[in-house]
Write a structure and sequence with these properties.
The protein is built from 17 helices and 20 strands. It is an alpha/beta fold. The protein folds into 3 domains: 88 residues, NAD(P)-binding Rossmann-like Domain (Rossmann fold), CATH 3.40.50.720; 219 residues, 3-Layer(aba) Sandwich (UDP-N-acetylmuramoyl-L-alanine:D-glutamate ligase); 133 residues, Protein-Tyrosine Phosphatase, Chain A (Alpha-Beta Complex). Strand 12 and strand 13 form a beta hairpin. Helix 6 crosses helix 12.
Length: 454
């Protein structure tokens, strides 16, 4: 069968290794860091050879194909050596996609991916479709394909630009592009064009039988579509204009009109529902809901099912998640906001005076785009990071109070002291978490624990 080497032994790497082993490949896993106990256990159980805290050329450069973790940049020395030897380097999604005939609903964008993926999954699952979630969320696609075989009807995949970069022959049956704003540009030579190309890989290999759902209000996406020869059936969504086909808002109703689409009862009328009944409120969530709703209509699901799901969806952890109310002060966990645009959406949706907890590992942020929304909404900033100089410089004089902290507990205590009844404390960092925390989940959980400790 050939030799497959997996670089990185996290969720996607361990899953890819197990699937490759089950398909009869000779498999070797290499991680430059320490491998977590739970993944070591998986590799040992399947008798897969591995190494940690190094990459050994003699065990890697003899591969027929390499499956690379999305966290490893293309500039990494071992990846450069593989490219020089013309050994194919692919993503776990590309590899797993070869071994399933399930429909692939693929969702990308700079912001809103997880919420849209979770809501789409919720709608399909409630409608009785045999569906799973994977990609950047939950268990890896490869592990699920290895365990489920070919019984599933559909996968809803949250895909980052890094995952898309390693995909060549993989095809999305339904592709969703929510938005494109500068993010992770350090991985793209600080070139927006490279990042845009990466995001548009979600449409690659699509034919006229496939669908591309996109936000027509996003200027970058709109201009890009005009220059690309997309073969798929394109379905836009908008909150700024009425559309002949797609999703839009009219008289405070969310309308979804898909031509040639009927639900199981033969009803051909457009889907309509009051925007006030939606579980996910705020402008950004309206976009996420529209995208998920279009998928429901493309699957010809009953409108009543879609309506129910859109009104009872519970949201996701670390994304505008209500943590608690303490003496009239509301605490909101938006730890997943790891870039400026995400933080802008969070602040923009707030209806109370905000004590904003922000900071962390800066990704080349330009805070000036937050000036207006911070002036309107924020009464105090609590910095949570090792180096807060950029945030302090950006908002000094624009916000009355700015304090520095280095732990979730300290940040929450300061925010509580600065707040009063009717205020909201919002953790929406606009930065990565790796300076003080394991990841954004760890940051969010520590925040919630600190709130509970109040």
């Amino acid at each position: 069968m050939g030799r497959v080497v997996v670089l990185g032994a996290g969720e996607s790497g361990a899953g890819a290794a197990v699937l490759a082993k089950k398909k009869g490949f000779e498999v070797f896993v290499s991680d430059s860091g320490k491998i977590k106990k739970k993944y070591k256990k998986v590799l040992s159980h399947f008798e897969i050879d591995f190494e940690e805290e190094k990459h050994s050329d003699d065990l890697i450069l003899n591969a027929d194909e390499v499956i690379k973790s999305p966290g490893i940049p293309d500039k990494a020395e071992i990846v450069q050596k593989l490219r020089a030897k013309e050994i194919p380097v692919i993503s776990e999604i590309e590899f797993a996609g070869r071994y399933t005939n399930a429909k692939m609903i693929c969702i990308t964008g700079s912001n809103g991916k997880t919420t849209t993926t979770s809501l789409t999954y919720h709608i399909l699952k409630k409608a009785g479709i045999n569906v799973r979630m994977a990609g950047n969320i939950g268990d890896s696609l490869a592990m699920q394909v290895a365990e489920e075989g070919d019984e599933l009807k559909a996968y809803v995949l949250e895909l980052s630009s890094f995952q898309l970069d390693g995909m060549c022959d993989f095809k999305a049956d339904i592709a969703i592009l929510l938005n494109i704003t500068p993010d992770h540009l350090d991985r793209y030579d600080n070139e927006m064009r490279n990042y845009m190309n990466s995001k548009f890989r979600i449409t690659q290999n699509q034919t006229e039988d496939n669908f591309f759902i996109y936000c027509v209000d996003d200027e970058i996406i709109r201009k890009e579509i005009e220059t690309r020869n997309l073969k798929s059936k394109n379905i836009p969504f908008s909150i700024q204009q009425e559309l002949d086909e797609g999703a839009f808002v009219k008289n405070e109703q969310l309308i979804i009109n898909i031509n040639q689409s009927t639900d199981k009862s033969g009803d051909t009328k457009p889907f309509a529902m009051s925007i006030h009944e939606l579980a996910l409120q705020g402008r950004h969530n309206l976009y996420n809901t529209m995208a998920a709703g279009i998928v429901g209509r493309l699957f010809d699901l009953r409108k009543e099912t879609i309506r129910e799901c859109m009104s009872d969806f519970m949201g996701i952890e670390h994304r505008m998640e209500f943590a608690a109310k303490v003496y009239g002060i509301e605490f909101i966990n938006d730890s997943k906001a790891t870039n400026i645009n995400s933080a802008w959406w969070a602040l923009e949706s707030m209806r109370k005076p905000v004590i904003w907890i922000a900071g962390g590992q800066d990704k080349g942020n330009d805070y000036s785009m937050l000036d207006e929304v911070v002036k309107q909404k924020v009464k105090a900033i609590v910095c949570l990071g090792k180096d807060n100089a950029k945030i302090i410089e950006a908002f000094d004089g624009k916000v009355e109070t700015i304090v520095e902290t280095t732990s979730a507990r300290e940040a929450v205590a300061y925010a509580y002291r600065l707040g009063k009844k009717g205020d909201a404390v919002l953790l929406s960092p606009a930065c990565a978490s790796f300076d003080l925390f394991e990841n954004y989940e760890d940051r969010g959980r520590q925040f919630k624990e600190a709130v509970r400790a109040l």
